[in-house]
Design goal:
This is Fatty acid-binding protein DegV. It is built from eleven helices and 13 strands. It is of the alpha/beta class and 286 residues long. It has a six-stranded mixed beta sheet with strand order 10-9-8-13-11-12, with helices on both faces. The protein has a four-stranded parallel beta sheet with strand order 2-1-6-7, with helices on both faces. About 4% of the residues have low confidence.
Length: 286
């Protein structure tokens, strides 16, 4: 049975990967004043990051409900079995909306075979889960085998990241105005992760080099067999920083498999230019 893999643009997957595995991606929305865009469709990450540097303030929202309905109805009519691998319900209402639309489609197409999975993951953390599922689907694995892998990867996926400027986290309501100002003056870089699908700060570190070192330490503390993993790295229009992090990881753990991509517009609107993140599998299920 051919299993169709569906996700949303918060997975921050490259166009090459999307095309290679024929993944259906539902775009989340980005707003600039009264202008409405779709992530990866009518606004690209580089455009958003440049706008943020120029002072633009972007807001985001879950996908249009019609996007879900169009995709789900298409596969319902084709009688195609599908899995929608969703952005964390702790960070967006995307998952809840997909469930609602699936139930609507089931009223008209009661045989619609679609599993919806709340990964509690974001950005390339979600992307690596989707990529694994797409590879298994391409290899002809059963739906049960793919769902088992999704569950494992989602439960073991670590997200460790830092932002270059606390101002963007302040705009998103993640830190106070005072913390943003003081952080900027003292060159403080927060290190954060995702726990139970929500952003949680780990600590604050002064200086970019120390942040990189701490991220590597966290990988060593939490990671499982890092040499054999595909390590995800995502950046906020900072290819140089991503390459530096990649080199440090390779030197420390001997890793030679990486998935590196720019952060998409929806995640980027909250994290800002200069954000750097690393994703890997941990030792214990979350």
């Amino acid at each position: 049975m051919n299993i169709k893999i569906i996700t949303d643009s918060a997975a921050d997957l490259s166009k090459n990967v999307i095309e290679q595995y024929n993944i259906d991606v539902i775009p989340l929305q980005v707003f600039l004043n009264d202008q409405q865009f779709e992530d990866g469709v009518t606004i690209q990450p580089n455009e958003l990051f440049q706008g943020m540097r120029e002072g633009n303030v972007y807001k985001t929202s879950q996908p249009l409900l019609t996007r879900f309905k169009d995709v789900f109805e298409k596969y319902a009519k084709e009688k195609t079995s599908c899995i929608y691998i969703a952005f964390s319900s702790g960070l967006s209402g995307t998952y809840q909306s997909s469930v609602m639309i699936k139930n609507e489609v089931l009223e008209e197409y009661p045989d619609f075979d679609c599993e919806i999975f709340d990964t509690k993951c974001a950005s390339v953390g979600l992307g690596l889960v989707v990529l694994k599922a797409a590879q298994l689907a391409a290899d002809g694995k059963s739906k049960a085998e793919i769902l088992e892998a999704i569950d494992f990867y989602a439960k073991h996926m670590e997200h460790v990241f830092t932002v270059d400027n606390l101002e963007y986290l302040y705009r998103g309501g993640r830190v106070s105005r005072t913390a943003a100002i003081i952080g900027g003056l003292l060159n403080i870089k927060p290190v954060l992760n995702v726990e139970d699908g929500k952003l949680v700060p780990i600590e604050k570190i002064r200086g970019r080099k120390r942040v990189f070192k701490r991220m590597i330490e966290l990988m060593e503390e939490r990671g499982n067999n890092l040499r054999e993993q595909t390590i995800g790295i995502c950046h906020g229009d900072d290819e140089e920083g991503a390459e530096t992090l990649k080199i440090m990881i390779r030197e420390k753990f001997g890793t030679d498999k990486f998935y590196v991509n720019i952060i998409g517009a929806v995640i980027g609107a909250h994290a800002g230019p200069g954000t750097l993140s690393v994703f890997f599998l941990n030792k214990e299920a979350k």
